C-alpha cells in the first residue's frame, strides 16, 4: 500500500528536522511495513513507508535521477512503466533500479510538469527538483491513492493520511463546521474539504505545483475525463459489440495490473465487479470475508463464483465486537464515512 509524507518550507519557514519527518512517517507504518526512507535536502523533507511489490530489493525510496537533482517518493504503481522506461532509455536516461518509481524522475526530466499525462496507474507522488527549484504533488486520474496537505503561512505539509500531516505539529486541528454539515448530509466529506479546516484533500487528477524561489503554490488540474466522441459509431454498436468491447478493456486493464515480484491474490465477494476482475486474472488465489449477519454476508455468492472459475478460494468468518473495536479502529479512520 505504501505511504508518503513531507514538509516544504515556504517564505521564511524553517526546514523540517529529521525527528519531525520520522514522527510523520511513524503514523503510517501500517501502510508500509517493509521499508522506510527519509531525506532532507535544500530544506525540503521527503519521507515514505514502503510495501515492496516491484524491485523488492532495489526500490528503496526516495529515488533519484542520475545527478541527484531530482528525487521522488511515491505511493502506488505505474502500469506502463516498462514502456516508459524503454522510451526514456532510448532518449539517453540511465536507470539504476528496475522499479517503476524511477521512471517518475526521468519522465520529469524529459517532460516537466506534463509528465503526469504520460502515466497509466494509481499514484500519489511528491517530487522535488532542486535545479529548477520546483516541488510538485500529484494524484492519479480518479483518486485511487489518497493525498492530504495543508498550506500554512510558512510551510506546505503533506501525507497519505491526515494523521501524518497532524504529526508535523505545523497545522491546527480546528474543526471545519461546513465540512461537518456535509458529513451529516452525505455521510462523507467531498473533496477538497476534510473535517479539519486547514487540511485539504488533493483532488483526483490534480497537481500542486510549488515555485520554491517565490514560495508560490498553484493548484491545477492535469487530467479531465474526455468527452465521448465517435457518437455515430456508438449508436451503431449492438449489445454484443458493447459486451466484447468492455470485456477486452477489462482484460487489458487487469493484465496491466498483474505486474509484481510477489504473489497476487484478489478479494472475491461474488458481486459483478470482483467476479469480472478474478475471471480476467486467470488462476489465482481468492479470499472472502464473511459475517454472521445474513443481510450482508456474501460468502455463498463468492463460493459459487470461485467454483465456477476454478480458483483456490479461502473464506474467513469474522464476528466483530464493534464496541470493543471502536477505540482500535478510530485512529485508522482519518477521513470518516457513515458506514458502521
Provide structural commentary:
The protein has helices spanning 18-26, 81-90, 101-111, 162-167, 177-186, 231-236, 239-256, 272-281, 299-309, 322-329, and strands spanning 3-9, 35-41, 44-50, 63-64, 70-78, 121-129, 134-139, 148-151, 155-159, 199-201, 206-211, 216-221, 265-267, 285-291, 312-318. The chain has 340 residues and is of the alpha+beta class. Strand 6 and strand 7 (134-139) form a beta hairpin. The chain has 10 helices and 15 strands. It has a 6-stranded antiparallel β-sheet with strand order 2-3-1-9-8-10. The protein has a 6-stranded antiparallel β-sheet with strand order 4-5-6-7-11-12, covered by helices on one side. The chain has 2 domains: 3-221, Glutamine Phosphoribosylpyrophosphate, subunit 1, domain 1 (4-Layer Sandwich); 234-332, HUPs (Rossmann fold, 3-Layer(aba) Sandwich). The mean pLDDT is 91.
In round numbers, the mean pLDDT is: 91
Main-sheet strand order equals 2-3-1-9-8-10
The low-pLDDT segments are: none
Shape verdict: globular
Helix content range:
25-40%
Number of folding domains? Answer: 2
CATH level 3 topology of the largest domain: Glutamine Phosphoribosylpyrophosphate, subunit 1, domain 1
Tell me the β content. Answer: 25-35%
Radius of gyration using CA atoms only: 22 Å
CATH C-level class of the largest domain: Alpha Beta
Oligomeric state of this protein:
single chain
Amino acid at each position: 500500500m505504501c505511504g508518503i509524507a513531507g514538509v516544504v518550507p515556504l517564505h521564511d519557514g524553517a526546514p523540517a528536522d529529521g525527528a519531525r519527518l520520522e514522527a510523520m512517517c511513524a503514523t503510517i507504518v501500517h501502510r508500509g511495513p517493509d521499508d522506510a526512507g527519509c531525506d532532507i535536502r535544500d530544506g525540503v523533507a521527503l519521507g515514505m513507508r514502503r510495501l515492496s511489490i516491484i524491485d523488492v530489493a532495489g526500490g528503496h525510496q526516495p529515488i533519484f535521477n542520475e545527478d541527484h537533482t531530482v528525487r521522488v517518493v511515491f505511493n502506488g504503481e505505474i502500469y506502463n512503466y516498462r514502456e516508459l522506461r524503454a522510451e526514456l532509455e532510448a532518449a539517453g536516461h540511465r536507470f539504476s533500479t528496475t522499479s517503476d518509481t524511477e521512471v517518475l524522475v526521468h519522465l520529469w526530466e524529459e517532460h516537466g510538469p506534463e509528465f503526469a499525462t504520460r502515466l497509466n496507474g494509481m499514484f500519489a507522488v511528491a517530487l522535488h527538483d532542486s535545479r529548477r527549484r520546483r516541488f510538485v504533488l500529484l494524484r492519479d486520474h480518479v483518486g485511487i491513492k489518497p493525498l492530504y496537505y495543508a498550506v500554512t503561512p510558512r510551510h506546505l505539509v503533506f501525507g497519505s493520511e491526515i494523521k501524518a500531516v497532524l504529526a508535523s505539529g505545523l497545522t491546527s486541528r480546528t474543526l471545519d463546521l461546513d465540512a461537518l454539515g456535509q458529513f451529516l448530509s452525505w455521510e462523507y466529506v467531498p473533496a477538497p474539504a476534510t473535517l479539519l479546516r486547514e487540511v485539504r484533500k488533493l483532488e483526483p487528477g490534480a497537481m500542486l505545483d510549488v515555485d520554491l524561489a517565490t514560495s508560490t503554490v498553484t493548484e491545477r488540474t492535469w487530467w479531465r475525463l474526455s468527452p465521448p466522441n465517435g457518437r455515430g459509431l456508438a449508436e451503431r454498436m449492438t449489445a454484443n459489440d458493447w459486451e466484447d468491447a468492455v470485456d477486452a478493456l477489462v482484460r487489458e486493464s487487469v493484465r496491466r495490473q498483474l505486474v509484481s515480484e510477489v504473489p497476487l491474490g484478489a478479494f472475491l465477494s461474488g458481486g459483478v465487479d470482483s467476479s469480472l476482475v478474478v475471471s480476467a486474472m486467470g488462476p489465482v488465489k481468492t479470499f472472502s470475508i464473511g459475517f454472521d449477519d445474513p443481510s450482508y454476508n456474501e460468502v455463498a455468492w463468492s463460493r459459487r463464483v470461485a467454483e465456477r472459475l476454478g480458483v483456490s478460494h479461502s473464506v474467513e468468518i469474522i464476528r466483530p465486537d464493534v464496541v470493543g473495536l471502536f477505540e482500535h479502529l478510530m485512529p485508522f479512520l482519518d477521513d470518516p464515512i457513515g458506514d458502521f
